[in-house]
Write a structure and sequence with these properties.
Helix content: over 70%
Strand content: under 5%
Structural class: mainly alpha
Order of helices and strands: HHHHHHHHHHHH
Number of domains: 1
Largest sheet: none
Distance between the termini: 19 Å
Radius of gyration: 19 Å
Number of helices: 12
Length: about 240
């Protein structure tokens, strides 16, 4: 399993694509957070990274599907999946190997943004920030990335075309993140149903953790989404 993980990471960073993906994430966030006046945290007046944690999911909605789209699509297209299946590995180990490689890449993307924390703390007049809220927000952001990665892996496992896998992954991620929240606001579901519909979406649980409230129900929700998507991916491999 770890040999597959290592191979995927080496393949990702063997070209400029991997480095460009990380630089783009940092560049987009940096422009919005420090350059554009409308969204600059320097002009916000408070020592908080709230704007970053609001913006990051939008970027990850497309970045993670782009990272994951070739996970199984290229294996199908090149015919190397049959060779991979002859290795002394279970299908679950193959899926987990590819999944963990995406998680590690996500860490390479997120960890450099810790610099924002030190920047905000340094610029704060009191020299202090809401540490608990930031820790909860980063945990939520990582679990959000892990959920997007599992969805993208699942979509890649269902298509031999990387572009189709990317478009499908991005669509499902947007749907699961924003869709249920939007549906809950329809007049048809106003009342008791709107609250439960909103809780199905990732956005509800991500925002809950971003407030610094580490509720086990939110963690269980993210882990359930990850498990379900990886389970479906393994079933797809069994059919192949």
């Amino acid at each position: 399993m770890w040999s597959i993980c290592k191979k995927e990471i080496n393949q990702f960073f063997s070209s400029l694509t991997g480095y460009i993906a990380i630089v783009l994430f940092l560049l987009i966030n940096g422009i919005f957070l420090f350059v554009l006046k409308e969204s600059s945290i320097l002009d916000y007046g408070y020592a908080t990274l709230e704007k970053y944690f609001d913006l990051a999911p939008w970027v990850l909605l497309f970045l993670i599907p782009a990272i994951s789209m070739r996970s199984f699509s290229d294996e199908y297209k090149s015919g190397t999946l049959e060779i991979l299946l002859t290795k002394p590995l279970t299908k679950s180990q193959i899926v987990l190997g590819k999944y963990f490689s995406i998680l590690i890449i996500c860490l390479f993307v997120i960890v450099p943004t810790f610099l924002y924390v030190f920047t905000i703390k340094y610029l704060s007049t009191s020299g202090s920030i809401d540490t608990g809220g930031i820790i909860g927000s980063y945990m939520g952001l990582f679990l959000l990335s892990a959920s997007f990665a599992s969805i993208s892996i699942c979509c890649s496992g269902g298509s031999s075309n990387a572009v189709v896998a990317f478009l499908l992954s991005a669509f499902v991620c947007v749907l699961v993140y924003f869709g249920f929240n939007g549906i809950s606001k329809l007049p048809l579901f106003q009342g008791n149903a709107d609250y439960y519909l909103e809780k199905i979406g990732i956005d509800f649980h991500y925002k809950s953790m971003s407030r610094g409230m580490l509720d086990t129900r939110d963690v269980v929700y993210f882990l359930s989404v990850i498990y379900l998507c990886l389970f479906i991916t393994v079933k797809k491999l069994n059919k192949k």
